[in-house]
Every structure is written in structure tokens, then in C-alpha cells.
Amino acid sequence: MKKITSTDTLRIQRIAPGQYQTEKFPVLTYGPTPRIDIKEWKLEIFGEVERKIVLDWDQFMNLPKVEVLADFHCVTTWSRLDNRWEGVQFNELVKLAGVKPSTKFVMQHCYGGYTTNLPLDVMMDEDVLLACRHDGEALPADHGGPVRVIVPKRYAWKSAKWIRGIELMANDREGFWERNGYSNSADQWNEERYWEEK
Ligand SMILES: Nc1nc2c(c(=O)[nH]1)N[C@H]1C(S)=C(S)[C@@H](COP(=O)(O)O)O[C@H]1N2
Ligand SMILES: [Mo]
Fold first, then answer.
1. Cα(26) to centroid(ligand 2), Å
2. CATH number for the domain running over 40-178
3. At residue 198, does pLDDT exceed 90?
4. Is the pLDDT assigned to residue 197 strictly greater than 90?
């Protein structure tokens, strides 16, 4: 399996400003944890694509996997270092659908209704993946299993749990927390936490 190290983990100061390191892995969810039966699970890639695709669990699991070593920074100030995520790279996944040149933004859609948005160039980074395993174990439901998105270079609310849809978009739209006071850009190195600090 291809191994990727997020370049953020190579920084001399790995804890982003205003964050503290925790060895624990807190659960942060708005609302209840959706329970998704693997037999019912589907992942849809749609919007500004050459062809909309829908993958079931077996099709997703048959895609080539990578392991990404990355740190995880929650806006509530905890950071968990050295996570080993296993899954499918975002940039490989969207190739299956064919990204139209008009695509500039991505909306992540979740089981349970949560959404979050980012520019396409941020999502195309080699350390962005749809993860089904964490530190050698199947991803637990409360951490977003069966599959979640991981975007190491942005605050963790940009890493959608229970991913169900990837929407490629020509124009930007705000996701759940972005509409409710969080920064649109969410760069932890620049402390882009909330609207007023943009
Ligand atoms: N679907 C969904 N994804 C989500 C959230 C959520 O409430 N629902 N919370 C976000 C926030 S604020 C954080 S910090 C991380 C937390 O991931 P964890 O619970 O695995 O630590 O998930 C993000 N992804
Ligand atoms: Mo968070």
C-alpha cells in the first residue's frame, strides 16, 4: 500500500497556534451518530462531473488504498498527532467521475445531513482521503465509520464523517458550520476559526 506523510507532520512546530496536544481521540458530532448498514451504504459523486457515479461498499473497497499519516486539529483547540488513516485518495476517487474544468469547489454531504465545503485545489492535495480505517482498526461509527473524509491541512470540521456524497461545484456554497459562524477557509496555521476572524 502506498504510504503518504502529510507535510504538516514534518513541521518543527506541529501543534497549530492556540491548540494543545491530546493523546485521546475525542468525539465531536453535532446531533446523533448515524448507523449505516454496509449493505445499504452508497457513495455518490455528482455535480460538475463528466459522469455521475454511485459506488457501493464492495466497489469502494476494491479501489486502491493508501495510508496517510496526519495530524488532526479541532477548532475547540485539541490536536491529535500521528493518526494513521487508510482509505482512497480523494484525487483518485474523483477521476472515476471525471472532473469538469468548471469545477472550483467541493461540497461533502453526509448521512445525517451534515455538509462542509472547500475549494477543489485544497481537496486535491495528496493527503486528502476517504478513510475507512484509523490506526489499524476499522473506523468506529462515532468517528465517522464506515467512511469519512480527512483533510489534514484544515480544521477538523472540514473532515466530514459518514460521507455519502461528493458534489463538485462551479460556485462556492457554505456547509453546515460555515453557515453557523465558522470560517469558510479554516486554515489552522492561520487560526481561521470563526467569521469575525476572517
Ligand atoms: N457528519 C459530521 N461530520 C463531522 C462533524 C459532525 O458533526 N458531523 N463534526 C466535525 C468536527 S467539528 C470535528 S472536530 C470532527 C471530529 O471528528 P471525531 O469525532 O472523529 O474526532 O468531525 C467533523 N466532521
Ligand atoms: Mo471540531
1. 10
2. 3.90.420.10
3. no
4. no
